[in-house]
Structure formats: structure tokens, C-alpha cells
Amino acid sequence: MAHSGTASRPWADDCSGSTIAEMVAQLGELVAEAPQHRGTLVDLVDTLRAKLRTRFIRYDDDLLAEAVFQAPWLTGFAEALRHEHVELLRVLETLRERAARSDEGVAAQRGLEQSYHEFVELLGKHDGGRRNLIYESQLCQGHLHE
Q1: Structural domain tally of the chain?
Q2: I need a surface site. Which of 29, 52, 81, 107 has the fewest CB within 10 A?
């Protein structure tokens, strides 16, 4: 279940280093073995959620504001990325709630795996969008200096 290599985890090269990527990979390993590691899984989700909130506040908000300053027509795209912050945290909370339950059946495990994969997919999409926004705003900035 865990992913290896940064090619399949585009968020590995973000401004927070590899910590978030390592945590997401570890989360995948724990989800695969959830019944034995529920407490550790809940703790990891809490830590990951805190790190993501910090990233969103410290880095993404400034990055999005700067991109919109450079290219005001990207405002809608930046707002969509901000909305994804909320969605990422919501999906992570769902994962946490499922991990905190004492259910050990097949359906409970599938729910955990579904939440994990939804989170990974959304995080990859979000970070790809961040990179696109940065690229577009830098492209605009380059044209302004010509």
C-alpha cells in the first residue's frame, strides 16, 4: 500500500522538505496494517494534520498571495487551491475517525484504505496545482521584465 520514490509523490519536493512525504508513506504502511496499529495511526494523522496546517498557513497562503499579485487573473485558481486546503484536512479527519474506531472488519479496513487513497490523490492534485500556479505567475513575471 505504501508508495516509494518521489516520482509517485509530487508533494515530496515541496517547501516543507520530505517530512510530509515520509509521513504520508508511513501512513500508507500503517493503514495496510491498521488493526495492529490504530493508536499509532491516529497519532500520525494528528501530526500530519498539524504539519499540513502549518504548511498551508506559512507557505501556501503567502505563495498564493504572491502569485495572484503577479498575475491577478489567477485569483480563481488560487481560491480553488485554498479550498483544497479545507478538503485535504476534511479527508484527513475522516481517515482519523475511521482509524479511531475499534472496527476490525473488512469493511472498516476498506474505508481506511479508501480515505487514505483519497487523501493521497487530493494531495498530489493540490501540489500539482500549486506548481502550475507558481509556473504561471513566474511566466507572467518574466514577461513583465522583458
Answers
A1: 1
A2: 107
